[in-house]
Specification:
Order of helices and strands: HEEEHH
Radius of gyration: 29 Å
Low-confidence stretches: none
Distance between the termini: 98 Å
Helix content: 25-40%
Strand order of the largest sheet: 1-3-2
Largest sheet: 3 strands, mixed
Number of helices: 3
Number of strands: 3
Shape: elongated
Strand content: 5-15%
């Protein structure tokens, strides 16, 4: 004697893993573009570059100056770990990423305040190079 069970739902056939030629379940060869990698070093370089371009456009004495980014200074000075070094004979300013990022304390932990700290170091390094006050570097830009 055979028992027959009737189910309340009709079983649907499973979708095939492979199509007629065995290719349907594969992923496409070209995937959608991934967002670009955004690292702290790249954000630091971008902030230094934009501040340096602003200063070069405002001050002719800075047009030939190279703004470089270094990881750490070679040695400490009397004030502690330097955030930048100025080399007027080489027309070069070196900003040290790790001391600026790790030893500076922003008021708020967000991207805007981190960028403001980086830009303020660029302005202070350029003021040190020009032997001026940092607030004198862009006075006409802030008067409306």
């Amino acid at each position: 004697m055979r028992r027959r069970f009737r189910s309340a739902t009709v079983a649907r056939p499973r979708p095939a893993r492979h199509g007629r030629h065995g290719r349907e379940g594969r992923s496409p060869v070209v995937r959608p573009p991934l967002p670009p990698l955004d690292t702290r070093a790249e954000r630091f370089d971008l902030a230094v570059g934009s501040a340096a371009e602003f200063l070069r456009s405002a001050w002719e004495d800075l047009r030939d100056v190279r703004f470089d980014v270094g990881e750490m200074p070679e040695a400490t000075d009397a004030d502690g770990i330097p955030r930048w070094s100025v080399h007027p004979d080489e027309k070069r300013i070196i900003l040290y990423r790790l001391p600026i990022e790790r030893l500076s304390r922003p008021h708020h932990e967000d991207e805007l305040h981190r960028r403001m700290i980086i830009e303020s170091c660029v302005f202070r390094a350029a003021a040190d190079y020009l032997d001026k006050d940092p607030w004198d570097l862009g006075p006409e830009r802030f008067r409306f």
